[in-house]
Amino acid sequence: MGPAAESTTPSPPTVLRGSCSCGLVTCTSNTLPISITLCHCTTCRKLSGAPFLSFGQIPNTALRWTSPPSQIELGIKLTSSAIAIRGSCRSCGSPLFMKYHCRPDGTSVAMGIVDEGSVVGDMVGPTEHIFLAEKAGWWQVGEGDGLEKHEGFNEQFQRRLEKWEVNGKERRGDV
């Protein structure tokens, strides 16, 4: 009998590619974001230099970082919090992602890194504004934009965060 046959299961097709400003950090996903959130918190505003930072929620099983891990700076020194770790490019500083400890199955990818020409399919639009209590005073959020508006996290995420805190604050193992 010959050697064992190799698996012929094809990989799911890539539907999105992303990269930082300098191109040293890249990623692919075989799933488009499930949702997109516009975060107006002070940290996101300062890191992006804009009135908000947009994040797309992508399952970890669909997301693949195709750069050496050493190229990704984890925000332990400056931009981490007790509830999440942020990642940025070590060379150009582009925000890349936020990984919430209470949501270990997904990554919030900074939507500014998405290479628009790579998107296959219909991308969802933003669904909500969060941390409007911290928004830039000069920025006006449109009342008729159809998006949910929250002073902090939305209620569902806040409940998830509270449950995580009560259950011992287990930190993600993938950061």
Task: Offer a quick outline of the entry.
With 175 residues, the protein is mostly beta strands.
Describe this structure in words.
By secondary structure, this protein is mainly beta. The chain contains two helices and eleven strands. It has an eight-stranded mixed beta sheet with strand order 6-7-8-9-4-3-10-11. Strands 1-2-5 form a three-stranded antiparallel beta sheet, with no helix packed on it. The protein is globular. The mean pLDDT is 89.
| SSE topology string | EEEHEEEEEEEEH
Number of strands: 11
The total count of helices amounts to 2
Q: Structural class of the secondary structure composition?
A: mainly beta
Average pLDDT score: 89
Instruction: Quote the beta fraction.
Output: 25-35%
Poorly predicted sequence stretches spanning 5 or more consecutive residues? none
Helix proportion range = 10-25%
| Main pleated-sheet profile | 8 strands, mixed
- Cα distance, first to last residue? 44 Å
Shape assignment: globular
Oligomeric status of the shown chains? single chain
Biggest sheet, strands in spatial order?
A: 6-7-8-9-4-3-10-11
Q: Compute the gyration radius: what is it?
A: 18 Å
Jot down its keywords.
single chain; 175 residues; mainly beta; 3-stranded antiparallel sheet; 2 helices
List the helices and strands and how they pair.
Elements: E1 16-19, E2 26-29, E3 35-39, H1 42-48, E4 53-59, E5 63-65, E6 72-74, E7 84-89, E8 95-100, E9 106-110, E10 126-130, E11 148-149, H2 155-166
Parallel strand pairs: 3-10, 10-11
Antiparallel strand pairs: 1-2, 2-5, 3-4, 4-9, 6-7, 7-8, 8-9
